[in-house]
Amino acid sequence: MLRRPLALLVAICLVHVLLISSQVQSRSGMPVLESVAFGALARVQGAVAGLADAVRSTWSQYFALRGVERDNAALRQRVLELEGQLQAERARASSARALEEALRLQQETTVRTLAARVIAGNPAPGAMTVTIDRGERDGVAPDMAVIAGGGVVGRILGRPAAHWARVQLLIGRDAGAGAVLEASGRGGFLAGGYGDGLYRLELVSPLTPVTVGEKVVTSGQDGLYPRGYALGTVERVEGEGRDRVILVRPGVDFSHIEIVLVVLALPPDPDGSARVPVRPVAPDRGRRRP
Amino acid sequence: MKLLPILAAVFIAVVLQATLARYMVGGRWVFDLVVVGVVFAALQQGAVAGMLAGTIGGLLQDSLSGGILGVAGLTKTITGYVTGGLGTRFVVVKPYARAVIVAGATLVNRAMTIGLDGILHQGWPAVSSVAILGETAANAVAGLAVFWAAAALPGVLARGRFRRRSSWSRRQW
């Protein structure tokens, strides 16, 4: 009686193992199943998130704090936009400091952003990605930087669907960014994926002085994130010399991300040539903006 | 074996998981409602149903998370099969007893996920025992609520029908 289910289990497990093996060998492009499931379920997620937001906003706007919440939301949106602009300005200022990279300066001066709403978290616990309600049709392309008020959130992971995209958070495993200590201007690599929710700033020379509270910004050298965007602040420094570990507190509160800004420009390639998005930016067709 | 309830249980679990995970991105609170859905299908309809629920739910989870397709599918398939097998051998009816099975299934599923992760990334991931215990507790509570609701629902519906019938009889009299 048990033999047939057991045979079925073995067959299914074998299929899974083959599936995993095929991806581990080569992970180019988005698999068909992934593409279909992501496209279809993202639509449901958008509707459920909208419903959840509607219930939440009904409660908070009409029962909890009538009227105040609405003003607050508008102000938060405005603050976010201004913070985005501030970061763009900071990026420009940082670029100005690097006058020797005069050619790159020309490419980094204009940064366009697109507001997006986070509609779903990751259904797999521990995996640090979120889904946003902007996709390829809105001009979103793979590897574009995603920022919020506090700094860099992450990057667009894989090819986006028409109206949805997945964002790899910087605190996730396998995530990282080229970073610079703002005070000293010394570079390193900021890595996520630690259980304590802090980044680790690696590849910094042991001779470089690091002070607690020092700001860490993107270096623009990784080919993903534009230069000068806030990453976080140095929380503490453990050990000395080669064993020194620099822990950085993220500038973004990852436990609560609602609205983010997608930087609609890819940073230039390390050789200096401009990168072009996969598809041209389509005009906004009246879709609801958060 | 009815396929529709299995699909419904898994689909609701995946949508709920993704929706609630949106508010808990930082990882302070971890839960896996898909495991609850898989255990629900397994205990209600047996090992094969649990296995199918695990396969569908796990693959959906994988495809939405952007990770390697098949990891959650494999672990949840095995979890569903084992849970369904246990459910048919030992008759477990009480919601709290089923919640304990959910807790056990969560631990087994997490252990397999960590093991596979370690093999695929050729290095052990940073594991927080507090997070694992938190996930186990959260899933057990969710399982208790689901099984309690599933046990109470037929009684509530029957009482409703009885009330409507008796009210109709009085009107006729």
Overall form of chain B: elongated
Order of helices and strands of chain A: HHHHEEEEEEEEEEEE
Uncertain regions spanning at least 5 consecutive residues of chain B? none
Q: By helix and strand content of chain B, what is the structural category?
A: mainly alpha
Tell me the strand order in the biggest sheet of chain A.
1-2-5-4-3-12
| Strand residue percentage of chain B | under 5%
* CATH homologous superfamily grouping of chain A: Rod shape-determining protein MreC, domain 2
What count of structural domains of chain A? 1
Structural class of chain A: alpha+beta
| Principal-axes shape call of chain A | globular
Order of helices and strands of chain B: HHHHHH
Radius of gyration over C-alpha positions of chain A, nearest whole angstrom = 21 Å
How many separate structural domains of chain B?
1
Mean pLDDT across residues of chain A: 77
Helix content of chain A: 25-40%
How would you state the average pLDDT of chain B, rounded?
84
Largest sheet of chain B: none
Folded structure, characterized:
The complex is a heterodimer of chains A (290) and B (173). Chain A is of the alpha+beta class and 290 residues long. Chain A is built from four helices and twelve strands; from the N terminus they run H-H-H-H-E-E-E-E-E-E-E-E-E-E-E-E. Chain A has helices at residues 3-25, 32-64, 68-97, 102-108, and strands at 113-120, 129-132, 145-148, 151-157, 165-169, 176-181, 187-191, 199-202, 215-218, 230-238, 245-250, 259-263. In chain A, helix 3 packs antiparallel against helix 4. Mean pLDDT of chain A is 77; it is low at 102-109 and 277-290. Chain B is an all-alpha fold. Chain B contains six helices and no strands. Chain B has helices at 3-21, 33-45, 47-65, 71-89, 95-121, 129-172. The longest helix of chain B has 44 residues, at 129-172. Chain B starts with a helix and ends with a helix. Classes of the chains: A alpha+beta (290), B mainly alpha (173).
